[in-house]
Amino acid sequence: MEFQSPCWPLRPSEIQSINDFEPSYLSALDEIYHPSWVARKLTRIHLLRTQFERLWPQGHPCKLILVTGTNGKGSHSVALEHFLSQRHQVGSWTGPHVFDYAERIRIAGEAISHREIAEIYWEKLRPIQESHIRQGKNQVLSFAELGILMSLIAFEQHKLDWAVMEVGAGGRYAPLMALPFVACVLTNVGQDHPKTLGVSWWQRCLEKAAVARSGVPFFSGVTGEGAPFVERIVNDQKGKLLTTNEHIVRQFRSWGLEPEYKCQNLALAAQVACHFDPELKIDNETVLSVPEPPARFQWIAPNIVIDVAHNADKMTALAQRIQLECKGRPLHLLIGISRRRSATDVLLPLLKLKPQSVMITSASYAGVDPLCIQAELKQCQVQVDVEQDASKAFLMMKERVPLSAVLVLAGSAYMIDQALNENLYVRETNASYGRRLGDPSQP
Q1: What is the C-alpha to C-alpha distance for residues 386 and 182, in angstroms, rounded to an integer?
Q2: What is the rounded CA–CA span in Å between residue 16 and residue 18?
Q3: Between the CA of residue 441 and those of 196, 207, 379, 420, what are the distances in Å?
Q4: Beta-strand (E) ranges in 9-122?
Q5: Parallel, antiparallel, or unpaired: how do β-strands 110-111 and 105-107 relate?
Q6: Contact at 8 Å (CB) between 309 and 337?
Q7: pLDDT score at 2
Q8: Distance CA 252, CA 283 (A)
């Protein structure tokens, strides 16, 4: 289980007045209450900004767009890249990867090559690391910082016009805050990472919307009761707020785009792209040809779907997609969970679909012990099988599930990797992430 508040988290309906919500004051209190944590984050941002300015003293030649949010960031980034690529050279930096680190950096719609990753690291990044080592151990670039610089170097080498860069988690203290952006995008605000982002919806809203910058367009897909609070945060940051264009949403609906969350997400991506290039042609064919990132409701066989849904909101969306596309076929689940999430909270949307069988397996990096998940679900009167080895678990379920039914793998990208990755060298490397630190749950 992740951090639990001693108080019940505030819901939007419990906020009496928008005037009581003071973003600048609340942010100041947060930093006053957590000075050491904030100092560490700001130190990392300063380090990356300093390195960025050394590499590109005149600014990066590529125009950068930041994407944050709880859910849909990866799909939004790929869609935005797809729309802009009609008339421009475009790339993206997203995460996490499912099977291969190279998935994180895309150039013209394709993952960067292993050769290029190796060349950039050994020729560009390793010398930077060595120079930082001489300055002290706290100056070493982190996993995220190395990846961000690698993507920026690749974007420059490929002479790209635009690049979309996805925040890993959170927003205002993310490493990407070190970079200059021509626009910021907030897909939505949902539930995840309560320990660092807050247990109440308004705390997560503040964490993500505060990426807004003075004079920079800020595109928000947040609707409902949360929208006025996003507006207040963006205005406090002096950003230029642009909300989802409902005309585009209605147009996409008329083309049969489903489910609704996907329609909203792609409409926001189209709005961002057309804001910077009104000459773009966003028609039915263009929208329906938007590629999905790996393991986003991806059919890998006629009766097998993989999806990286790993929190309650994403599982709710996954359940909607299953109902929409599987049309009543019997459901079987193979689940792995990471980062001390509550199995009950995460899996409830899928369990409501009454699966015929559920198997729990390991998720490698930061994975929750399958036996602990089994014990938690047993308290909820849910019976599950356990197989620690994800690849064996997949083979067992694949044999069990007939073609007339559907097997869904979900809960953790790390589990999907361990179950399906055909490159055994990369698979084992992925599973061993963090091993040199002694505690694989701490990157």
Answers
A1: 48
A2: 7
A3: 15, 23, 26, 22
A4: 63-68, 90-93, 105-107, 110-111
A5: antiparallel
A6: no
A7: 39
A8: 9
In DSSP terms, 165 is beta-bridged to 66, 93
Q: Tell me which residue of 92, 103, 97 sits closest to 62, measured CA to CA.
A: 92
> Where does residue 127 rank: exposed (0-12), middle (13-18), buried (19+ CB within 10 A)?
exposed
Residue with token string 């990866």? 74
Taken in order of first residue, the domains within the chain and their CATH numbers are 17-288 (3.40.1190.10), 298-437 (3.90.190.20)
State how far the Cα of 12 lies from the Cα of 365, in Å rounded to an integer: 34
Which residues contact residue 424 at a Cβ distance below 8 angstroms, ignoring those fewer than 6 apart?
none
228 cis-preceded (ω within 30 degrees of 0): no
Tally of residues, the chain: 443
Q: Is 407 exposed, middle or buried (0-12, 13-18, 19+ CB in 10 A)?
A: buried
Per-residue CA distances from 417 to 361, 409, 426 (Å): 12, 11, 10
Is residue 330 within 8 A of residue 406, CB to CB? The reply is yes
- Name which of 168, 186, 156, 163 is nearest 80 in CA terms: 163
Per residue in 256-269, pLDDT (tens digit) is: 888 888 899 999 99
225-244 pLDDT, tens digit per residue, is 788 889 999 999 999 999 99
- Tally of CA atoms within 13 A in the half-sphere of 406 that contains its CB: 26
How far apart CA 409 and CA 9 sit, in angstroms, is 31
Strands of the sheet containing 63-68, edge to edge, are 110-111, 105-107, 90-93, 162-166, 63-68, 183-186, 217-220, 240-243
